[in-house]
Specification:
Radius of gyration: 13 Å
Order of helices and strands: EEEEE
Number of helices: 0
Helix content: under 10%
Strand content: over 45%
Shape: globular
Largest sheet: 3 strands, antiparallel
Number of domains: 1
Distance between the termini: 23 Å
Strand order of the largest sheet: 1-2-3
Number of strands: 5
Length: 65
């Protein structure tokens, strides 16, 4: 079951992760929220992170705890 977050506007977002190759050749994992469940959905928030909501758009984002 994918981790879901309901924002103050009542919209549900699901947490995903993806491994990307940076221009300098280093691998990095990125985390993002989407309105639907896609490949790469996570079951929980990664350790050391917490979910906050942007005040302007209501979009959830991860922030280091």
């Amino acid at each position: 079951m994918a981790y879901s977050y309901k924002n103050s506007k009542g919209q549900t977002y699901y947490l995903h992760s993806k491994s990307v190759m940076l221009k300098n050749g280093r691998q990095q994992t990125i985390y993002f929220f989407a309105r639907d469940v896609r490949p790469g959905a996570l079951d929980s928030v990664p350790g050391g992170y917490r979910v906050i909501e942007t005040s302007r758009t209501g979009m959830p984002v991860l922030k280091k705890a």
